[in-house]
User: What shape does this take?
Amino acid sequence: MFNDKNNKYRELTLVAVLLGILQGIILNIAFVYIALKLGFSIGGSAIAAILGYVFLRGILRDGTIVENNINQTIASGINSTGTGVAFVLPTLFLLSVQNQNLVISLWPLLIAGIGGAVLGVIVIIPLRKQLIEIERLRFPTGVAVATIIRSGAATGFDKAKLLGIGLLISAIWKLLIISCWLEVPGILEGEELNLSFGILPAYLTPAIYLSTLNFAAGLLSGRSGLPFLFGGILAWWVISPSSVYMAWTPAGLDDTALISFIYSEMLRPLGIGVLIGAAFMEVILNFSAVKGAIHSLISVSRNNSLTCKDEMSFTVLIAGGITAILFFFLAAWSVTGVSIIQALLVSVLGTLWLGLAGLIVAQCTGLTDISPVSGIALISVTIMMFALDGNVGAAMLVTLVVAVAIGQSADMMQDLKTGFMVGSRPILQQIVQLTTSWLGVIVSCTVIYLLWHGGVDGQNGFGPNTSLPAPQATVLMSVVEAVQNNTVPVDKFVLGGIIGVLLGSAPLAGMGVLVGLAMYLPLSITLGYGLGCLTQMFILKKKGEAFTENKIVPLAAGLIIGEALMDVGHVIFKMFL
Amino acid sequence: MRILGLLLFLIGIVLALISAAKLPVCNTNWSDILPFYGLAILLAFVGLLLYRQSQSLNNLTYNSSTILCIVKLLLELIVEMDKLEAEIFQLDETELAQRINILLNKYVLPCNAARQEIIESLGNYKGSEVLIAIAQGERLLNRVWSAASDGNTQEIYRVYPKIQYNFKEAYLKCLNYQTNLLIFQKE
Assistant: This one.
């Protein structure tokens, strides 16, 4: 019999909100700094869930599973806005050194970023049913976080044990890899195992990425992730050798230069085109289902049936969307050289584009846990530079909005997946993400602003030849320069886009997006993920659906969390020692 | 026809990707094998049309059996849920969580595994309605599991009727669509 603790089930509580905000701000500051230092950021969901578990259930003793989900939703929402800001804003500061006409004012950026945070959540909410309930995308990090949150319960002990085993295996493996104890020159370097055996040519890039996180993402996806493996093989074992054989690559390049040429000039831009074409087609093909989801949101706003009040009202979404677009418009209009017509065009075009981009990123993270943010930023800069007559400041402002928004879309979906698995009410998660994630924009903009002005003569606080090299900003700067010099591979985007439309029409869900993403990434990642997919399919065949769901999922969750935690530890170790 | 369609589609996509990879020659915007790319796209398109056509014929012939299986599963789930309702507060949290796990593994998981067939059989809109109703029930079952683990009976009382409502809704929709499908096939 139950020992009833409380009449009301604790879910959206003041303590969960305050803890989430506090964790979100701390993680945001730390990860923005890490992004400037090392060029990549880290998701904070798992850390927030573990700390939430310790605080809510361990210290306060009356925390619940769904309350921790609210805490983790807020913390990761605030943290993930920092990722978008840290990708774009430093580029603007670095560009201002080269271009004296580029004046940076913090207010339009803040307004734009806040608009992006709100829009990113709003555009993805109507797609919750499509991505989570109909397509049932895996969202590996979301599943991992749900396993952590549920593992504390007495009834989840078996799964907690598997989670712990996975975590331990992953942590030990990561430790061995980063300490270079297993390193054998020519065979195992970095985190990649070379599979060329001294026979296969380098342009086939025969290597496998030895990441337990990557393998576990494949384990969670199974058969639905196979098009990703197919795309990688097609890119590197069919297109790459064909191009070399038909002499489409410059003669006399060494192995590294040849791989770099094939990757950056051929496969990557084609992959971005395929991604966008496929996502566009999926929106059209699934229009009836999305329309149905929106219809159900509208009916939820109107009736009081048993299923109501679990979804955010459509009226609120519309009102929020209009407010965010207004923010977007005002921010664009305040940039020097932007007319009212251009600002209007940018806010409408930008919103449509970020809706599509949000879907692309949510699908990619849902299927593989990998987010093609830099590819999306490249397209954003290209479109906006054309729409705004080469106005760098305004184009970067729109890119900031898109980067923040797509980060929010992906994060919201991950959190909603976690919420689905622990039985949270989606409306509460959506409300907290909408009302708190914008805080992350203020925090990260302030951190970057302060760090920049902390340099010599009140500027150059980060960038090349400083202690904070901001590698992502350097990459984005090269993209801006490519657009300015008209060297953007528009032909590849268009041709890839048409192929994406066809792949998006294929009967297998997510095929186009996965093939595009695989072409956009190195083969080693695709192979590691594909191995996970094949392993899951083998286990599923031998042991059945229930075994896979109850044993493999928690183990895979442990593998994901173990590597994520070791990565954070390693970064901190590298920064302070 | 189905295999031929798939084969043409794949060959077309592979050839289109290979030809799209070629860089434009100097001072032009497009590569010189663009016509070849166009042909490959056409081939893929024809393959896709053939595949889709054979698939829809296939669906009409076999799909009522898939829906019948889902109807049976949902009916059994509803019966099991009614049984659990009668004894729910005699169970402790571990027993309740185990019972929920059984419901999830035995009935909900197979329904979800057949989601592609449901969509193919009923079409995007109707299939989605059924899947959404099942998913709503599943999320609330997960909530009961969480509430049981947190020792909160009030929440279980509150949520349980909603789960039954959602699964009954999915069952009725499926039954209705399956009947229509059979009538359509007879005609």
Remarks:
- Residues 65-98 of chain A form the longest helix (34 residues).
- The mean pLDDT of chain A is 86.
- Chain A touches chain B through 68 residues (CB under 8 Å).
